[in-house]
Amino acid sequence: MTRSLGDGCGCFPTGRHYPGIAHLLKTTVRGLAEGIAADTPWQEIEIALLDVETTGRDASVDRVVEVGIVVGKGGEIVAKYNWLIHPSIPIPAEVSAIHHITDDMVADKPRFEAVASEIAAALRGRVPAAYNAPFDRAFMMSEFSRAKFDTAGVPGLTRDVEWLDPLIWARDIQSDEKSRALGDVAARLGISLENAHRAEDDAEAALRVLFALGRDPRMPRAYGALVQEQRRIGQAQADARRHWRS
């Protein structure tokens, strides 16, 4: 989704203010969810933060065993969803040791295609988000593709909608810290995460992290500006990692 953004706040999408030139700013915004205006304050939008637990790290072959979605608006949690899912393949012992989901726990649970419509309904009409979004998004895209589910009109399940990602903002705002693992970032912000590596608990903690980081003036207030700045920062971070690895 592409929109035009006239930023009436007198600032560039970076959030840096330049008084008196707001009328000159007209920026094309890519990646916005359908039906949500670029100048809408993102805190006033329902955000569906999704987390998955899986059988491994490769979305092309591994499968989802749990999906959690926590919805927030205005800094408050307004809905929670959770599904345990039969992955159709064994869960490796070393992976179970991380999220503590075993084959026995999912033996009588539905396969993904049986709950795909429920998951899509929880995302529909909301802005998608995830902590380290490329990971969760890749698994969602793979699972919905295997299920042959029509994802048209579901934000986050089409390739043109940008997911909000608290990890990108944590790397930027907490740049002096060594660890940007969800549990460590949450702890520094005074946010509890008791059952780490379970989907609903991780999703709620990550959403609370997003809201807490959102109080920092470096995060733009308008939805369109937030998406633009996140894309810019995320690309800079990716370039820096590539440079470091080389």
- Could you say which structural class the secondary elements and strand pairing correspond to? alpha+beta
Query: Can you identify the CATH class?
Result: Alpha Beta
Give the oligomeric state.
Answer: single chain
Instruction: Determine the mean pLDDT.
Output: 91
* Strand neighbour order, sheet with most strands: 5-4-3-6
CATH superfamily: Ribonuclease H-like superfamily/Ribonuclease H
The helix/strand series, from N terminus to C terminus, equals EEEEEHHHEHHHHH
- What number of domains? 1
N- to C-terminal distance? 35 Å
Largest sheet: 4 strands, mixed
Strand content: 15-25%
Number of helices: 8
The CATH topology assignment is Nucleotidyltransferase, domain 5
Proportion of residues in helical segments: 25-40%
Q: Which residue ranges are poorly predicted, with pLDDT under 50 across at least 5 consecutive positions?
A: 6-25
What is the C-alpha radius of gyration, as a whole number of Å? 18 Å
Q: Count the beta strands.
A: 6
The coarse silhouette is: globular
- Can you name the CATH architecture? 2-Layer Sandwich
Describe the structure.
This protein has one domain (42-222): Nucleotidyltransferase, domain 5, CATH 3.30.420.10. A hairpin with a 2-residue loop joins β4 (64-73) and β5. The chain starts with a strand and ends with a helix. The chain has helices at residues 93-99, 103-106, 112-123, 133-146, 166-173, 182-188, 199-213, 223-245; strands at residues 2-5, 27-30, 47-54, 64-73, 76-84, 127-129. The chain has 8 helices and 6 strands. It has a 4-stranded mixed sheet, sandwiched between helices. Strands 1-2 form a two-stranded antiparallel sheet. The chain has 246 residues and is of the alpha+beta class. The protein is globular and about 50 Å long. α5 packs across α7 (199-213), α5 crosses α8 (223-245) and α6 packs across α7 (199-213).
